[in-house]
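Q&A log
Question type: sequence-to-structure
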Amino acid sequence: MNGTEIRPPAWLRPAHGVAALLGLAFCVSGLAADWALPELMHLLAQQRSGKASFVERKYMSMLDKPLESSGELSFDAPDRLEKRTLKPRPEVMLLDGDKLTVTLPEKKPLKLRLQDHPELAAVVESIRGTLSGDQATLERNYGVTLSGVPSKWQLTLTPVQKAVAQVVRQVQIAGAEANLKTITFEQADGDRVEMVIAKVAVP
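Response status: OK
Response body:
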């Protein structure tokens, strides 16, 4: 393409909000008496699909105030994620297996394969590992720490791969039972992305 480099879209680069696709689990009953990482993973794994609304804020050192966007999220286990941004401009990003498709109004869709972007793939697998309750996938790419209690817990992911750690310092996911409430990406350059998630009731 005339030597032009095709880069992953901003939302899926670690510096700009991969966090967008993590907030999609819903409440179930029957918490284990011994609250630990396996119990949380089991709880999340019960959710085979879900929908949520989001508000995302990107805090960047070069800006006086955060960039804000909002829209809808959806998840279908085990590996289909969609982020539909409604404001400030329409944008649809669909991750289905190894394929990522980004669609903007009046533009040709951009298609990427995760296997061509190993660092991006590691971040995406951490997202899908959380949504699917897949502890093995998380621990393959991240040091995983769970703190708190079922009604107010926090999952902290620290990259174990050097290439990923050079971009993402830490990911923090906070929730209550099987509801994900907030996701924060702390970047190696000091910038961060915060997302607030609200469950959408499904009729």
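Response note: The two ends are 46 Å apart (CA to CA).
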